[in-house]
Specification:
- The complex is a heterodimer of chains A (167) and B (290).
- By secondary structure, chain A is α+β, with helices and mostly antiparallel strands.
- Chain A has helices at 66-79, 110-124; strands at residues 4-7, 13-17, 20-27, 31-37, 42-48, 88-93, 128-134, 140-145, 150-155, 158-164.
- Chain A has a 5-stranded mixed beta sheet with strand order 1-3-8-9-10, with no helix packed on it.
- Chain A starts with a strand and ends with a strand.
- By secondary structure, chain B is an all-alpha fold.
- Chain B is globular.
- The N and C termini of chain B lie far apart (39 Å).
- The chains are: A alpha+beta (167), B mainly alpha (290).
- Chain A binds chain B through residues 10-11, 25-30, 49-52, 54, 57, 64, 93, 95-100, 104-105, 107-108, 110-111, 137-139, 156-157, and chain B through 107, 109, 112, 161-162, 165, 174, 232, 235-250, 252, 262-263, 265-267, 269-270, 273.
Chain lengths: 167, 290
């Protein structure tokens, strides 16, 4: 089977069965969900830009929003043969600019809101979260190799192996 | 690590690869905002630079502008698109060659500075249109140029990024604050200095100088505010992020001055993403032309 390299852009969902590597070069406040059904060898990634869908926008690009994007990701994996009770996921991203601690400015913390919304959406889908590398002010990129389950992170400090979704 | 004895003039004099804008594009930028600017004078300036003219015509004929017929004459392009749109095309065509290069001092990969700057241009234009606070085309050009100082500063931060980020994290400082602490000035000030040497109008110099610190401007400026908010949107969406990431302060007052409610922010981000996708066609045209 030929391994494919899948670039995951902003507000996109990609699903692969068998072998494949997901790559995303830069996540800011968006939160990326990398998910796997290890038994079925099905993996997927979604890069979610905003927490909740805006009427009229989610239909065309469900991955723009955490609530619709997570649901679509799990549905796509299931259509390919995954079982949601076996799916586990990791979260990457959700950084914020330095907006201050004022509670009135909560709307400006898009990254934090994205992380909470993705966690809530995954819980609603019955998917457990294996690990998170979220928050702060840093840019993150990631690579997720479906066959090994290995997820690596790339930041300004360099690239490092992070977690294994098959262990 | 501190190199505070440097001056901005030193940085400019000692940096080998400074950004440049062709004289014809600078003349178009000045002419488009002057009272005496006409389609004829703009096209005359453009015609003095063949490479620039070719790029502007290629962009003008791109699917993005949807002109009813192929345009081969610069004067006709100016009449059909308008002086300020052509000004924007000239600036896009003039900056792309050096904005697509990587900047190791900021850990910016190839095309990342371009992608970020172009997104801020699109965002600034969107905010200007939505709020009617300033001229959308001026906001576009200001957004495109806001980070030119990084091109000159990059070599001075080379191999220091990890230390700069460590200091920023330890003292909870924004990246531009660390630049000022180490060098005595930041990339915004260096960019403004460059823009002054190009004799750009203050309406473009101010957004470059104050894009991270709009409140330092003696008089609040809607263009500065639009660029600041667009920069925030662009960093949040991760377009062309460097090693400095999202480590910049956000000035809440800009939203108040632009009459944007924080609760409207998600809608603005949503429209911004849509606008960026549409404008990406221009980037594709540039890639094909390069």
């Amino acid at each position: 089977m030929t391994s494919t390299c899948v670039q995951v852009g902003l507000a996109e969902i990609q699903v692969v069965k068998g072998v494949g590597t997901f790559q995303c070069s830069s996540v800011g406040s968006c939160v990326a969900v990398c998910a796997i059904d290890a038994k079925a060898n099905i993996g997927g990634c979604a890069t979610l830009a905003l927490p909740k869908s805006i009427p009229g926008s989610a239909h065309e690009r469900p991955a723009k929003f955490a609530n619709t994007g997570v649901r679509e990701l799990i549905n796509m994996m299931e259509r390919m043969g995954a079982d949601r009770t076996r799916i586990t996921a990791v979260l990457v991203g959700g950084a914020d600019t330095m907006v201050g601690e004022d509670a009135e400015l909560a709307d400006l913390r898009i990254g934090s809101r994205n992380v909470s919304a993705a966690e809530e959406a995954l819980a609603q889908q019955g998917v457990s979260i294996h690990a998170r590398d979220v928050g702060g002010e840093q840019r993150r990129g990631f690579t997720f190799v479906l066959e090994s389950g290995q997820v690596s992170l790339k930041t300004a400090a360099g690239e490092r192996a992070w977690v294994n979704l098959r262990s | 690590m501190a190199t505070a004895t440097l001056t901005i003039e030193d940085i400019i004099k000692k940096t080998a690869e400074l950004p440049t804008i062709p004289a014809a594009a600078l003349a178009v930028m000045r002419e488009a905002d002057s009272a005496t600017g006409t389609a004829r004078t703009i096209s005359q300036h453009l015609a003095s630079d063949q490479a620039l003219s070719a790029r502007v015509l290629r962009l003008a004929n791109s699917a993005y502008y949807g002109l009813p017929k192929q345009v081969t004459d610069l004067s006709e392009a100016v009449v059909l698109l308008g002086m300020r749109s052509v000004r924007n095309l000239a600036v896009v065509a003039a900056t792309y060659p050096w904005m697509q290069k990587p900047l190791s001092g900021y850990a910016l990969e190839p095309k990342a500075l371009w992608s970020h700057s172009f997104a801020v241009a699109v965002g600034s234009q969107l905010i200007a249109r939505r709020t009617n606070a300033c001229d959308p085309d001026l906001a576009f050009t200001a957004g495109l140029l806001h980070n030119i100082g990084k091109v000159a500063m990059s070599v001075w931060l080379d191999r220091k990024l990890a230390a700069v980020l460590g200091l920023a994290q330890r003292d909870r400082l924004a990246f531009d604050e660390v630049e000022r602490k180490l060098l005595g000035f930041d990339h915004a000030e260096v960019g403004a200095y460059l823009a002054e040497t190009w004799n750009l109008p203050s309406s473009l110099i101010d957004p470059i100088r104050y894009h991270h610190n709009p409140s330092a401007n003696s008089e609040p400026s809607p263009v500065v505010d639009a660029v600041h908010v667009a920069d925030f949107l662009t960093m949040s969406m991760g377009y062309g992020l460097g090693g400095d990431g999202l480590r910049y302060n956000f000035c809440r007052d800009t939203l108040d001055r632009l009459t944007i409610s924080p609760s409207d922010l998600d809608g603005l981000v949503n429209d911004f993403m849509d606008a960026y996708v549409v404008h990406e066609r221009v980037i594709e045209e540039m890639n094909q032309a390069a």
